[in-house]
Amino acid sequence: MTRMAAHEELATAEAGVWLARLQGSEVNEGDGLAFDAWLSASPANRDAYQQALAVWHELDACADEVLEEFNAMARRRALHMVRTRRWLVGAGGVAAAAGLALAILPSVLAQATVDTYETGKGERRQVTLADGSIVDLNAETRLQVTLARSERRVVLGDGEAIFDVAHDTDRPFTVEASDRTVRVLGTQFDVRNRKGELTVTVARGKVQVSPPASGAAGRAFLLTPGQRLEVADSGAEALRTVDPQETFSWRAGRLIYRGQPLAEVVADLNRQFTEQIEIGDAELGATPITGVVVLDDPDAVIARLSLMLPIRSVRSERGLLLLRK
Questions:
Q1: What is the pTM for the complete model shown?
Q2: Going residue by residue through the chain (325 aa), what tens digit of pLDDT does each one get?
Q3: Domain range for residue 312?
Q4: Same domain, residue pair 68 and 118
């Protein structure tokens, strides 16, 4: 075992001890100061404790399913720890269970956990799934995540999310959105499902986009980095070459458009701001826009839009009304 691996194993075991110690009824200020000192001693300590805490929450949600597995493995794991690190003796069974939890997390997840994540108007959120995958949710997005023994499945309703998927050949990762299924093993991609219009943009790896069942409308596509599949609400499909980082720019508070209609831009802005924007007429809404929109405040956004298009804004009951100059 390398020195680094040994250090990480020690941090994992110590994290289990601290998790148990801080759960006790007699924890005091001295414990808190000692814990802070331990966290500050090494980045590995902080990472190990965050992992232990995440696992603890997973176990709390599915304790019944893993109790039998704990009973079978805890004694062997605890005995090994006590023999190699005598300071663990006073930690008790809870610490041994916390350390063991880190070792058997895949078995815990095999029992299928279902979580729902959502964002409101103007809210962006990043979540780390129990399998290590990272998901960034754009404003007004809702998705349901199921992690099971043989699959990882996400159902994306109306919304947009960027997925950075942890590689796991035994558990394919799928995203169901609109009437399509996106299937990957390990990659980074964006899925946008707004009012029945779907786009899938790939930054890394490969994804397969197909109808959810044989005989359904549409055909399968294999997307590689720099490709975007666009599926209109009518079912029309288009495959384009794009810069994925432009698609991902909403994470940094920017929206980049290349010839999209003003109506689409306004719809995006209305998900970001409480003050709503309306367009005076349909012809104005169809006007294409190319440029970068920084999401700071509605007045500043409209001021910049008026530099791109011949438009002006007036106050309305809902917020702002866009009219031709």
A1: 0.64
A2: 566 666 777 888 887 777 666 655 565 556 666 776 777 788 888 778 777 766 665 555 454 454 444 444 444 454 454 444 444 344 444 444 455 455 444 444 446 788 999 999 999 999 999 888 999 999 999 999 999 888 899 999 999 999 999 988 888 999 999 889 999 977 999 999 998 899 999 999 999 998 866 555 668 899 999 999 999 988 889 999 999 999 999 998 999 999 999 999 999 999 999 889 999 999 999 999 998 999 888 888 888 888 888 998 898 887 889 999 8
A3: 253-324
A4: no
What's the CATH code of the domain at 187?
2.60.120.1440
Dmax (CA) of the chain:
80
